[in-house]
Design brief:
By secondary structure, this protein is of the alpha+beta class. It has a single domain, classed as 4'-phosphopantetheinyl transferase domain (Ribosomal Protein L22, Chain A). It contains 5 helices and 10 strands; from the N terminus they run E-H-H-E-E-E-H-H-H-E-E-E-E-E-E. The longest helix is centred in the first third of the chain and has 20 residues. Bound molecules: coenzyme A. Coenzyme A binds next to helix 2, strand 2 and helix 5.
């Protein structure tokens, strides 16, 4: 489902619960990667292994050979030179996306269950403007039940912000707080038969000075989202130049 919100310059791979089990033939780690999770609990080792398998599948999609993807500063994955990429995992889902830096200087992907955020989390991850927007969506009658919503908007906001951070970090190499980017979620539409999938766009306006991209400070990051199969996936792309990637994803 991630591929559906990505332009053709980005290669993506994903695995759902029930796909090839972690540790299967397509899921092996390089020794240097094994060392990173040698003392981790089983669940973490599995998600790390599947995430690396997806990352190598994404590299293969770019025509690149399998290589170790180690962890850099603050846990950011270290992609081979000339590649920008991102990895995500949540219950029942793992995915990775990669592109050549001649197309994208950075990208971030995130996946979350399409369920309301736990109580109290929204206040910690949102700006006042975002909360006002969420309240407007809920209408005067208050929040609808999750089943009546096209997507759990609060969780979508959270996922989009995580994707923003994953795209921001390799460029800025410093922390970005949840309150330091203001998100606007654009119009959404159905992307499959019936309500099987809903998709839309979002913009993240940075409230702190951004790192230079194309000779100018980055101020706005653009993303897309898709909700399907009980999951929300988000992707933020930072093009190498205004003409480097098409605005709309090629595959629907
Ligand atoms: C790092 C973070 C974004 C990961 O998101 P998550 O939903 O917890 O977990 P996910 O499974 O989706 O993503 C984990 C992957 O993110 C990647 N990641 C971790 N740190 C990263 C960083 N600094 N930069 C880019 N990618 C990073 C890794 O590939 C990691 O998987 P791996 O350890 O198996 O390699 C999150 O834990 C975090 O610290 N968030 C706070 C910062 C933030 O989101 N600010 C909002 C700004 S608006």
């Amino acid at each position: 489902m991630l591929e559906r919100i990505l332009p053709p310059q980005v290669a993506a791979a994903e695995r759902f619960a029930g796909d090839e089990p972690a540790g299967g033939p397509g899921e092996t780690l390089f020794p240097a990667e094994q060392a990173l999770v040698a003392r981790a609990v089983d669940r973490r080792r599995r998600e790390f292994t599947s995430g690396r398998a997806c990352a190598r599948a994404a590299l293969a999609g770019l025509g690149l050979p399998p290589v170790p993807i180690l962890q850099g500063e603050r846990g950011a994955p270290q992609w081979p030179a000339g590649v920008a990429g991102s990895i995500t995992h949540c219950d029942g889902y793992r995915a990775a996306a990669a592109a050549r830096t001649s197309d994208l200087v950075s990208l971030g992907v995130d996946a979350e269950p399409d369920q309301p955020l736990p109580a109290g989390v929204l206040d910690m991850i949102s700006t006042a403007a975002e909360r006002a927007w969420l309240a407007e969506l809920a209408g005067p009658a208050g929040p609808a039940t999750p089943a009546a919503l096209p997507v759990c908007w609060d969780r979508l906001l959270f996922s989009a912000k995580e994707a923003v951070y994953k795209a921001w970090f390799p460029l800025a190499r410093c922390w970005l707080d949840f309150g330091q980017a203001d998100l606007t979620i654009g119009p959404h539409h159905e992307a499959g038969p019936g309500r099987a999938a809903i998709t839309g766009t979002f913009d993240a306006r940075l409230l702190v000075p951004g790192p230079p991209v194309n000779g100018r400070p980055l101020q706005l990051l653009r993303g897309r989202w898709l909700a399907a199969r009980g999951l929300i996936v988000t992707a933020v792309l930072v093009p190498a130049s205004p003409a480097a990637v098409t605005a709309e994803p090629a595959r629907h």
